[in-house]
């Protein structure tokens, strides 16, 4: 810990030091140590950091230090992409300002009473945290005045831009005086982010958390190679075997969220779902029940859980492997907080191993293969817990009133051993099902052992996506299912696709007209090599969003600005429906049937 910076060594007021001490913070996180000095100086700052790195305190502490207390006007504003993140940031800022008198923080967001929010603003809020849409609404009503604000923070700016808030953000910036401090935090540095910073930030200082600092060392990360149909069974076995009480389960689709919740509830687990179709009041109720521990298992999509921060989460289960490497970091960052340990389990089906390797390359962490607990393993763990509870209950005493129950059962002809075994079974709630004695390990792993392959990923592995990062750079090594037509990768072709709609298939690499299998439908996707798309990204998105097996896709032809994908006819309508509005590597895509030449 010698290379870390202690909070009490930084130039903070007594109020801030008292607050961070009460919150249990002793050392500044990397993003805090780098960003706080520059923000305190009043400089514009670009912070590249993911959820769970302590970025709220990184901008919140200097913001509170700069506020003139007891002055009843808005001095600083924080923009957040979602209501959940806005509420989370507000809660953190209130904790940080607890011992700083005269600082008042309020939250404004859609789905809540605007009259209540206007009343709160009129009372004299110093710091406003809000979503762009509601902030604009309040400005237009002249209830929110930013003419004296000197600081604005754009939290998770990449997400706000992806959600279409750019015009709102620019309108809000125009309401704040030119002499202002702008702090922007983003998980990625996209072209949109850079364009925004170039226009509105003055000589900004860039601070970032490097990749080897992204994943928490307190999180045990394991993957499990499973049969697709056994995902739920493996999930519940992991929950029971590791005795997980508060768990976040991530899916790639809203429909999958509802299915998983229904199955968990059927099996006796207190579960609820969180996705974009819920009204704000419903989302708030679900989150409160999860935070309070009344619901132990929250199933969510990545977008719905953006900015979600709940203490004491035991573990994260990636029911669906994330479609983007950064989503993985966001997901597992919900556990292992504040020095506590956590678990992150990822269920991998068949050829998804390739996507898992991409995640490991990105995070610079080797995710070890876990062993799926058997039915006997789960029963053994529950037996041990049951014995401990029984022993504790006996020690408590006051059992006389229940003695006649045992006598009644014995008079009915049951032995003491039968009675005790039945009580154990009822208490444990374990029922042997069709998976009881089955090997739930995926076909991919069994084949790998059969042919002597190891976990490093054999280039000739028939279970994976053919071609890896290297083959994407070399068209000859990537020959086969995923091919890039070399005629479209050179400089002379750049810009050729501008303002054109879906086009028909190109010629194949031998110059002959490409002919798709008559059982396939050729589809056009409006992204390509310019967006650094790989075949595994395409397969992952199509399989994850549509629920179709990734190995049924035909040839994938990636060009500079678009991609062609062969999809079996029976899945065509499903793909067109489910891929509408979907994202690949954070970019919303258009998927259409390719037009013939």
UniProtKB/TrEMBL annotation:
One GO CC annotation: cytosol
EC number(s) from the headed UniProt entry: 3.6.4.13
SMART domains linked: DEXDc, HELICc
A UniProt-annotated Pfam family: DeaD_dimer
Organism from which the protein derives: Aquirufa rosea
Keyword Methyltransferase: no
Gene3D superfamilies found in the cross-reference section: 3.30.70.330, P-loop containing nucleotide triphosphate hydrolases
UniProt record similarity statement: Belongs to the DEAD box helicase family.
Keyword set, alphabetical order: ATP-binding, Cytoplasm, Helicase, Hydrolase, Nucleotide-binding, Stress response
UniProt protein name: DEAD-box ATP-dependent RNA helicase RhpA
Domain Helicase C-terminal: 218-379
Region (Disordered): 439-517
Gene Ontology molecular function: any one: RNA helicase activity
